[in-house]
Amino acid sequence: MVVCFGADEIDVYRVYDAMEASGWTLNSLQNPPCVHVCVTLPMTTNVAIFLKDLEAAVLQVKKEGVAGRSKGTAGIYGAVGSLPDGPVECVLQTFVDMTLAP
Questions:
Q1: Which residues pair with 38 in a beta bridge?
Q2: Which of 51, 5, 59, 58 is nearest to 24 (CA)?
Q3: What is the DSSP code (8-state) at residue 65?
Q4: Residue 61 has what pLDDT?
Q5: By the 8 A CB rule, do 32 and 6 touch?
Q6: pLDDT of 29 higher than 60
């Protein structure tokens, strides 16, 4: 099962970064900005820990306020979503060429 969440009052990408720093594997999405987690059988035994870490991440992001906007992937991911297709496609092609080159 996949669970997706977003936020109106805080930057959900910063919550994503905080959860990643706590060791959770999540995926960030765009339009609207949100995060999803795949709930697998092994995760079901850790739901309480996940929720505790999620609450801590949200509190951390709220405490940092606007000062945390330049941290982590939040600024990058949000900015990429606002760019036209041309530059993003070029950067991604270059990245793939460099990382998959023999």
A1: 2
A2: 51
A3: G
A4: 92
A5: yes
A6: yes
